[in-house]
Amino acid sequence: MSRPAFALPLALLLPLAAAAPAAVGASLEDFSRAVGMKKGLWHTRVTVTAAEIRPSPTADPAHLAEVRAQIEAKIGVAEEKDECLPAASPGGPRLPGILLEPDCSYSRLRAAGGRWSLNCAVATDDEMASMDSEGTYSRKAVTGRHEGDITRKGVVLHLKAETESRWVGKCNPPKTIDVTADGD
């Protein structure tokens, strides 16, 4: 399976309530506890509101065309998903509508008084990304605005997105399947 031209770090991207403030230096777990999300089923809508592609002179034309097609198809289109939280996540805590990426280097990580903000920077061998995010939260809802740059293979993508998440109820238990044979 091939990786998309840009793995958008907004899960594309990825419900909260006030407790003690979390600030820079706090862990992702501390941030997650500070916002105090309600456990259960959450509905999240992510919309890319704007994108600008800036190629360098060394950008591969095929990669540039792939990025353009991928991003242009996402602008203004709401992507929605339902997720039962908290969910087991190998990378650490997950909050709908808020990017919590274990590989990020955070220069800002705050949650207090119904407002949250963070800055995430990631650098790998083939990709660099920096995302500023902020929004509001309550125990059953969260909004977010995200803006940043992603650089890969000589192409810089400047991206703006908005997220809305809301608690919709309890999670349904997984369905079980009876595998016993009839007549035995």
Explain how this protein is built:
Helix content is 11%, strand content 43%. With 184 residues, the protein is mostly beta strands. Strand 6 and strand 7 form a beta hairpin. 30% of the residues are buried.
What do the pLDDT scores average to?
Answer: 77
N to C succession of SSEs: HEHEEEEEE
What topology, given as strand order, has the largest sheet? Answer: 2-1-7-6-5-4-3
The helix-and-strand class reads mainly beta
Which spans have pLDDT < 50 for at least 5 consecutive residues? 1-24
In helices, the fraction of residues equals: 10-25%
Number of strands: 7
How would the global form be characterised? globular
Report, as a whole number of angstroms, the end-to-end distance.
43 Å
* Biggest β-sheet strands, sense, barrel: 7 strands, antiparallel
| Percent in strands | 35-45%
| Number of discrete helical segments | 2
Using the CA coordinates, give the radius of gyration. Answer: 19 Å
